[in-house]
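Renewal narrative, Specific Aim 1. Our central claim is that a sequence can be written position by position from structural information alone. The example that follows is taken directly from our test logs and has not been curated for this report. It begins with the structure tokens describing the chain, in the order in which they were read.
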């Protein structure tokens, strides 16, 4: 499963195109939701901005196009992130980045930490469970195994960035 594919082969170009589409959907969904990156959960992405982020992602897409396992993991997790972004992007864009940030911070402060964490962990555990099942029953076929790994990667990423955001919100003055 750790095999590489030849640079310039048709498989290389297919994976490269799929990576560009998946990362592009992540970028598009983020841009629709938070064009000024006010609501971006990833502090590194927020710091480097759009231009450097696009260049870095193009380089990473090109580099990972020779290695199918992480490429499919990246494609899967990127599409899941984009779907999550699109779910609330309309509200973020309608309210505006700063009013939405204030609104969501107020809701998080009003909610019990226990309830919030239970809901977060339930959501991400369900997604990770599906990913784990795909990995277990894949018979080590690359695509289903890597999709399962991508689902688990997505779930872990959501937990990490959400906990980071909640921690920042809870420790900041109202």
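The sequence written for that structure reads:
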């Amino acid at each position: 499963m750790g095999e590489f594919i030849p640079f310039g082969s048709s498989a290389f170009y297919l994976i490269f195109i799929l990576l560009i589409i998946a990362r592009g959907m992540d970028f598009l969904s983020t841009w629709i939701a938070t064009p000024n990156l006010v609501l971006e959960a990833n502090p590194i992405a927020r710091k480097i901005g759009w231009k450097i982020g696009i260049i870095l992602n193009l380089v990473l897409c090109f580099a990972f196009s020779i290695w199918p396992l992480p490429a499919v993991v990246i494609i899967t997790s990127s599409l899941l992130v984009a779907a999550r972004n699109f779910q609330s992007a309309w509200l973020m864009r309608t309210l505006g980045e700063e009013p939405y940030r204030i609104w969501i911070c107020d809701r998080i402060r009003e909610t019990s930490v226990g309830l919030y964490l239970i809901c977060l962990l339930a959501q991400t555990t369900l997604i990770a469970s599906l990913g784990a099942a795909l990995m277990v029953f894949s018979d080590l076929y690359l695509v289903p195994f890597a999709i399962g790994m991508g689902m688990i990667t997505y779930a872990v990423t959501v937990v990490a960035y959400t906990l980071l955001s909640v921690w920042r919100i809870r420790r900041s003055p109202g």
